[in-house]
Each structure stands twice: as C-alpha cells, then as structure tokens.
Amino acid sequence: MTKETLIPVCGGCCNTPPANTRTTLDTNKLNALIDWVGLTFSSKINWKKLIELLHLDFFDFKITIGSNLGYMEKASYLDIIHIHYGTPPKATEDMGIHLEISGQGCRFLETNWKNEFSWADFFQLSFLYDLKKATRVDLALDDFKERLKIKTLFKKADRDELVTRFRNWKYFLSGDIYKRKKVHGETLYIGSAKRIQFRFYNKLQERESKGFAVDHNINSWQRYEIQVRHEQAHELMLAIADGGRTIGEIAKGLMTEYLSFRVPNKNDSNRSRWAECKFWTDFINEVEPLHLTMEYPEQTLMHSQEWVIDQVSAVLAMIGEYSGREGLDAIIQIGKEKMTEKHFTMLENQKKLDSINQNTGYSWENNHADFWQDHKKRSKVFN
Fold first, then answer.
1. Are residues 6 and 75 in the same domain?
2. Are 246 and 239 a contacting pair, CB within 8 Å?
3. Which of 63, 307, 317, 362 has a Cα at 20 to 30 A from 183?
4. Domain Rolling Circle replication initiation protein N-terminal spans what residues (predicted)?
5. Smallest Cα–Cα separation from 233: which of 18, 36, 20, 24?
C-alpha cells in the first residue's frame, strides 16, 4: 500500500448549504445524505426536458458556450446544478447530455420536494427521460459526536493496520501560519478517485476556515464521504432507486466490503485474521439503520441574520447612536464591496426558498398524482 503525506494542503470538499426546513436535524445521531449526482441522458431528448425533471424554471438557468466536461454548451442554475449538452463535431462518439448536481444542488432540490418524494423517486423518474447511466454518486455521513478520530484512522493506515482492497491512501493537513491554532483541517483519502474513494475530514474546520457560517450550536462536525464513479456509480444509483434498503445499509455494505481497521496481533502475520477495532465495529453498526437526512447545519441567509442579531446587533446599535443612519449605511456599503460569490448564492437561495414557502411553481405537490398534473402543465413550456 503506497502512502503520501502532504502539508499544508486544504482538505475536504463538497459544500452543502442551504438548510432544509422539512425535517429536524438530530445531532446525536449519524446523518446520511446524497452529496453529488452525475447522470448521462440520451442526446435524443431536448436538454431542456431535464429542467422539467428538476422542476425548476428555464429562465433561471445561465447558458454559456463551452463546458469543462468537453460539451459545446452548458446551462447552469446558481452554479450548483449544471446541464452539459452538445457533442463537438470532432468527437468520436455521441456524448449524450450530462446532468451534474453538486452537494449544494442536492440540498437545494430537496427543498423543493414535499412529503414522500425522495431520491429513489427522482432516479426512477430519470429513466422516463431516457437516462443512460449514472457516472458519479456520492454518499456522505455527518457525525456531530466525533465517533471516529481521523488521526487514528491515519495512524492505522500508516502502520498497515487497515485491511482493504485498495492500494493507496493519502493524508492531508492544512493550516494558517499566522494563527495560534495552526492546523485547521485534515483529510484522509482511501481508494481511487477514478472508481471508489472514501474521504474522512473535519467539516466544521473546513467550513470555518473558508469563512462559512455554521449553526453556533454545532461544536463538532466530521464528514465521511463515499465517492463512487462509473459502473459502480450506476449500480449504486440502481440500489437507491430500488428503495428496498436504507442509505445506511448501502453505505455499510460499501464500508464493510472495502475497509476494516484491525487490532495488530504480534503472533499472527496475516492481517485479515486480526480482530476488528471496536470503534470501527461500533461505528458500522450505527450506520446500518440510517435513512436519508434532509436538514443540515450550514447557514441560510436567515440563519446569518439570526447570528447578526445575537452577536453584533448591540455594536451596530451603538454605531447607529453615534453616527446615525450615515454610519450604518457606510458599513453596509463596505460589506457589499466584500461580498463574494458565496454570499450572492446564499441570497439567491433564500429568494428561492421564500418562493417555495409561498407555494409558487417551484414546489412539488403533495402526492405523485398532483405532481404529475403540475408536471404536465409545466412541460408545455418546452413542447
């Protein structure tokens, strides 16, 4: 097994705001989610049909020439959902139409879904749009109680106390030279990014180091991701679409098949006969019954507003008393100049969430019959 340690490199990936308000996040339990979806459809359909599948509005998509995946054009929704289409003339084969939903896009779609509609339904529905294959599906487990010590997992891998079908692992640290707490992120990768890869990282550190606001009640947040590509991704998508197993059962199946942290036995050189670490066995057993979670602790605009009220409203009031409205307006103007893409995305997301809560055309109906009736009406836009 080859190994690689790089310092400092920022670990972690897959951003996943905004929060969904349908369910309550239980931070005492592990929480399972789908955190990336890549699907390829037949080019026989009009790419705009996929907007029907997403139940979004065509006029909210930005069309650009070219695509990072080699297509001729790309339609993007808030830069979190992308539809790549148009096979270049020089391509050796038809590339089809590719739908790419980031982790943030997954969370956003879930805000549109009501009651029983799920990812299983979404994948089943995709076949009616001439789905050819899934090319990537990521699962993730959010742990708010630090059930696993990432450094312990790294040490186990480094000491060859990990039984796995993979040959490679990598461990990354990131930090800030000028801050007292220099190390603010660590990530352990096990497996191949081209097929199946497991990622273990401190999500709270990763979010805070990038300036993202997180619910102030969250003191610990680790994420364990399973990135699945190509043929295995299609098999994973079919397993989810089948609906017969919980996401935890599927995740457990992948983890037990590919990873096992062991207790070394000096009297036996065969690692496969070593006893499994209790922390790993306990963790796997807790994973099994998990269902998909639809609420996450990253901040929406409303959460940010609550944070401002709790933390800095008194200071703003003091400035207002001293400088009047002019002083507050000056602060707001400075803030506007500092706004980045993430702030504009959060603002747009909140506007969409508001429209959903007002039962506009973005919302899914209460049952499949009503959904199909609404779906049929909306589809006329593209007929």
1. yes
2. no
3. 307
4. 32-124
5. 36
Q: For residue 192, count other CB atoms closer than 10 A to its CB.
A: 13
Q: Is residue 292 part of a domain?
A: no
**Which residues, in sequence order, are CB contacts of 227 under 8 Å at separation 6+?**
36, 136, 138, 193, 196, 197, 198, 199
* pTM for this prediction: 0.72
**pLDDT, tens digit (0-9, with 9 covering 90-100), for 315-374:** 788 888 888 888 888 888 888 888 877 677 667 766 665 554 443 333 333 333 444 454
Q: Are residues 175 and 140 in the same domain?
A: yes
Tell me the backbone φ, ψ of residue 146, rounded to 5 degrees. Answer: 50, 55
| The two three-digit tokens of residue 156, written as one number | 């186990």
- Residues 211 and 360 grouped into a single domain: no
Structure confidence at residue 266 as a pLDDT band (50, 70, 90): very high
Tokens at 215, concatenated = 């619910």
For residue 296, being part of any structural domain is answered with no
Tokens representing 109? 């779609």
Cα–Cα distance, 122 to 106 (Å, whole number): 11
Residue 232 and residue 348 in one domain:
no
Cα–Cα distance between 83 and 102 in angstroms, integer? 12
- Enclosing domain of residue 354: 301-382
Domain count for the chain = 2
Residue type, 347: L
The answer to whether residue 238 sits within a structural domain is yes
